[in-house]
Write a structure and sequence with these properties.
By secondary structure, this protein is of the alpha+beta class. It has four helices and seven strands, in the order H-H-E-H-E-E-H-E-E-E-E. The chain is 23% helix and 31% strand. The protein has a seven-stranded antiparallel beta sheet with strand order 1-2-3-5-6-7-4, sandwiched between helices. It is globular, with a radius of gyration of 16 Å. The chain starts with 5 loop residues before the first helix and ends in a 9-residue tail after the last strand. It binds dodecyl-COA (DCC). It catalyses: (5Z,8Z,11Z,14Z)-eicosatetraenoyl-CoA + H2O = (5Z,8Z,11Z,14Z)-eicosatetraenoate + CoA + H(+); (9Z)-octadecenoyl-CoA + H2O = (9Z)-octadecenoate + CoA + H(+); dodecanoyl-CoA + H2O = dodecanoate + CoA + H(+); decanoyl-CoA + H2O = decanoate + CoA + H(+). It is found in: Cell projection, Ruffle membrane; Cytoplasm; Mitochondrion inner membrane; Mitochondrion intermembrane space.
Length: 190
């Protein structure tokens, strides 16, 4: 199933009414960042809280490479309608690959993490076994990116999923297709 790209509903959201942000909305972000978050709320995304309660086997996420990384500040949102997940992320200066731009491995990790969140929050524990990233534009350091993760289809223990990384104006930085497999035996702790 082909998911609609992020851009059309992002652009459409710009014309709709302002959503009311919760009082616990993290402060200190740019106006641009707050505008995107507001628009996402209007599209039905909700900030995830109390993750360890919702998914007991994910209670260790504070050690997650991406979510605990001081160079990658993430606000996670999820849409109940289809389980897709949005990461609003600010990438710092020390995730450099090419001079002035984000390392491709960091881009891949961010995509993998966002899509993994969509998969893990939608079903049983599964691990990435394939990650195919298409890099479309270099991502500047010290910038805000919007990452979308969604499930395409699940067939038995296998889930095919996808992710996209955008500039806040909707320009595509990178896109990925992923294959997840639910382990046959033990469920590793994340
Ligand atoms: C929410 C809060 C935030 C939470 C945020 C948290 C985000 C965390 C994100 C972390 C994401 C990661 O980095 S995960 C870490 C990187 N990934 C890994 O380390 C996974 C390493 N791989 C494995 O351990 C293993 O392959 C398993 C356990 C996944 C599967 O082994 P298994 O259980 O023995 O299954 P097995 O029989 O081999 O395979 C089952 C089926 O899948 C197919 N299959 C298996 N591997 C592959 C493959 N690479 N490519 C194609 N197909 C494959 C097999 O052919 C088979 O198909 P058929 O014969 O049935 O048709």
């Amino acid at each position: 199933m082909q998911k609609p790209s992020f851009q059309p509903y992002y652009v459409k959201a710009l014309s709709s009414e302002q959503a009311q942000l919760p009082t616990w909305f993290p402060s200190g972000h740019s106006e641009e960042f707050q505008l995107i978050l507001r628009k996402l709320f209007e599209r039905g995304f909700r900030l995830m809280r109390k993750l360890n309660i919702q998914k007991g086997n994910l209670s260790n996420i504070s050690k997650n490479f991406v979510l605990s990384n001081p160079q990658i500040h993430v606000v996670m949102l999820r849409r109940a309608l289809d389980g897709s997940v949005i990461y609003l992320a600010r990438v710092g200066s020390q995730v450099q690959g090419p001079s002035g731009f984000m390392h491709g491995g960091a881009t891949a990790a961010l995509l993998d993490d966002c899509v993994s969140s969509a998969v893990l929050l939608s079903g049983p524990f599964a691990m990435t076994v394939q990650l195919n990233v298409q890099y479309r534009k270099p991502v500047p350091l010290n910038s805000v990116v919007v990452v979308e993760g969604y499930i395409d289809q699940t067939n038995g223990r296998k889930t095919i999923a996808g992710g996209k990384m955008y500039h806040p104006d909707g320009a595509l930085y990178a896109e990925a297709t992923l294959l997840f497999v639910k382990p046959r035996l033990v469920e590793p702790k994340m």
